[in-house]
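Notebook entry, structure prediction.
Reason for the run: the old model in the group folder had no record of what sequence produced it. Starting over properly, with the input documented here first.
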Amino acid sequence: MNFFGTIFSYIRETYVDRLSYFPSNIKISLMIILFCAIAIVELYIYIIFRRVIKANQNKQTKYWKERIGNMLASVVVYDESENTAEIAVHFYDKLKKLPLKNSTVNQILTSEIITYHKNFTGKIPEVLALLYAKLKLDKRSKKKIDSKHWETKIEGIREANEMGISEMAEEIIKYTDDENGLLRMEAQAAYLKLSNKDPFHFLDRAQERILDWHQLVLFEIITKNKKLTIPSFSKWLRSPNDTVVMFCLKLIDHFMQFDAAEEVQRLLKHHNTRIVKKSIEIIGKLELEELEKHMFEIYFDHTDEIKLEILNSLGKISSGKYADFLSSRIHSNDSKIKRAALYAIKRDADHGEARLLEIYHHTSPENQALITHVLDNRIKQ
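New structure, fully documented this time:
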C-alpha cells in the first residue's frame, strides 16, 4: 500500500508542484503522457461497462427466448380440432402479458413466430399469422420497412413476406427498383407473393438490372407458386431493360407461351447477343416453323455461337425447308458448325439419315468420319 502511495505522491508532486519548473518540451511530454494514461483508464472502464451490459443482455435474451419458445411450442402441440381463431385467442391472452414494449422481447417474439411459421404446415401457420396480427407485430415490420437503413428494410420486408401481409405490398413496391441489389431482390420477391392485383407490376418500372442469380430466385418463386396468375410475358419484351427482357424470355420458354412468337421474332435483331441467342433457342424449342426464315436471314450476320444456336433450332423444327442450307454447312471451316448442321439434318425423322448417307458419298474423308460419328446412335449430341 505504501508503494502505491509513494507513486501517487510522486505523480501529484510532478504535475502540481514541479511542473512549472520544467522546460517547455518536458511539460508537453508530461501532458501527453497524462492524457494517454487517462484515455487508457477510460477505455478500460468503457470496455468493462460494455461487457457487463452485453452479459446482461445475453442473459435476458436467453431467458426470454426460452420462455417464448416454450409458449410457442404449446401452439404446435395444441389440439388442432378446435377452430383456428379460438386457438389464436387462447394463446393471445398469454402472449399479450409479455412486455412487448421491450424491444428485445418484441424482436425475439417476432423472430420465433416467423421461424415456427416457416417450418410448420397445417393450422399452425394460420394460428401464428393471426397471433402476429393481433399482437400488432405487423406494425413493427412496417416501421422496419420505412427505416432509413437498408438492412432494416430487408428485415421488415422478409417478415412481411413470410407472414403474408398483403397490405404492405404498396409499401414494398417502391423498393423493387432500388439501387441496392439485395434490397431490390427482397422487395421484388416479396411483391410477387403479396400483391393481389398485379404481382408483376415491378417489371413495368424496373430500370435497375435483374442479376442472373436474382433471376433464378424470382424464377423459382414464380414457377412454384400455384396461386400466381401467369400473364403473357411478351408484353415486357419491349422493355428498355435488357435484363427484364432476358428474364421474360426464360419465363416464356418455361411456360411455352406460343403467343409470344411475334415479339420473339422482333428480338432476333436485338443489340444484345444474349437475347438474340435465347430468342433463337425458344424458336427451336417451341418449333415455330414460321420463324425459320427470320433465323436464316440473320445467320451470316452473327458469330459462330449464334450460328450454332440457329443450326440447333433449325434441326429441332425439322421442316425440311432448309435442308439444302444445312447440307451446305459441311463446307464450313469450323468443325462445330459442321457437326451442328449434320445433327440438325439427322433430326429429320423421315429423310435425315438418308440425306447424311448421300452427303457421305460426295465429301472428303474428314467429313465422312464426322458423318459416321453423327450417325452412331450410341453417341449423344
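Summary: The chain has 19 helices and no strands.
The old model has been moved to the deprecated folder.
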